[in-house]
Amino acid sequence: MQISPTQRVPAHTAASSTPAAAAPPLQDRTPDQLKDGMVVTVKGAGSTDLAVARLIQDGAQYMARVANTTMGLATVEINYKQADDQKALGLATFQGTKGWFALSMRSTTGLLEGIDRLRTTPWASWTEAQRQAFVQSNETILHEAAHVTLNGYTRDDVNAWRDADRNIEEGISEVATMTHIRDFILDEFGVDTGDLTDRISQSTSAYTRFSERLQRLIGMGTDGSKAAVASAASAVSDTVRADQRAGELARRIGLNLGGETAPAAILDEIRKTIPGFIGEVNGTRTKLMELQAALVDHKAGQPLADVDAFLADLRAKYDRNLPAFGAPKNGTKPLD
Ligand SMILES: [Zn+2]
C-alpha cells in the first residue's frame, strides 16, 4: 500500500492531526484510522498488513517527535530476506535525501503476530518469549528510524551523515531506541511492557560495545535521570548534524560538569577523544576521566593554572604509542 510517498509530514504536525496519542491503541484502530495520514510507502505489505505499515510510520514519527525534528522516512520494505541473510533485524540508508529502511522477515513476523495477539490475549498472558519477540521487533523499527531521522534532509545533511563515524551512528541510534522503547510501546499500544521484560530487552540490545559508552557520555551531560538521558539521546541522535555529534556530546558534558565558563580547549580535547573512547582504544577512558575531573574542579572554583600544559601532559601520557584510530564511516551501504 502506499499513499502520497513523496510527501514528508513534520512529526509535530502529524502528531496533532493523526497521532498515536489521540487515536486508539494501534491494535484497536479501524482500517480508516490506520490509513488516515499515511505518507510512508510500505513495500511488501498486503492489504491485511495495514496495521504493520501504520506501526512503522508511527514509530518513525515518534522518533522524530521526541527529538523535535521531522521524519525522514519515505520508504520501508517489510519481509526483507536480505536482512535475515545478513543476520540483521533491519537495514537503513538514504536514497538520495529520502530515508529508506527494511525490516527482516523475523522482525516483520514479530510485528504481525504480536499485533494479532494483542487483539485476543492480554499482555500478561503472553509468554516471555512472545513478549521479547514483539519488543525486539518494535526496537528494530525505532533503531532503523533513528538512522534515517536527521536534523534536516538537505543534500549537505545527508552527505554529512554518509561521512560520519559509523560506531557513533550505531551506538546513538541504539541508545535512542533503548531509552524510548518502553514509552513508545505504551504510547502506541497502551501496553506497559513491565520492568523485567524491559530489562531483558535492554540487556540484549544491539551494539552494546558502542551504546553503553555513548549512554554514559550522554548521562554525563545531564542530571543522570532516565528522562533526561532519553531526551538527550534523541537530541544528539536526531537533531545534530551527523558529523558534529562528538562535539555536541563534549559541549553537553562541559556545560553540565564545568559550567558556562568551562575552558573550550578541554571541551575540544573531549571531542577529539570521544571517537577513540567509543571504539575502545586504550588510554581514552583514563584521559576522559581526567578531563571530566578538571571540569568539575573548574566549576568548584579550583581551575587549572595552565590548561595547555595539562592537555600536553595528558596527550603525552595517553596518546603516545596508540595505534592510529580511524573510525569507519556510515558510507553508502545500508547500516544494520
Ligand atoms: Zn543500526
Q: Strand order across the biggest sheet?
A: 1-2-4-3
- Tell me what portion of residues adopts beta-strand conformation: 5-15%
For the secondary structure, the number of strands is 4
Q: Describe the main β-sheet briefly.
A: 4 strands, mixed
Low-confidence stretches: 1-20
User: Class by helix and strand content?
Assistant: mainly alpha
| Domain tally | 2
What does this structure look like?
By secondary structure, the chain is mainly α. The protein has helices at about 10-15, 30-35, 50-65, 80-85, 105-120, 130-145, 155-165, 165-190, 195-205, 210-220, 225-240, 245-260, 265-280, 285-300, 305-320; strands at about 40-45, 75, 90-95, 100-105. Strand 1 (about 40-45), helix 3 and strand 2 (about 75) form a beta-alpha-beta unit. The relative contact order is 0.11. The structure holds zinc ion (ZN). Zinc ion binds near residues 143, 147 and 336. Zinc ion (ZN) binds near residues 143, 170 and 335.
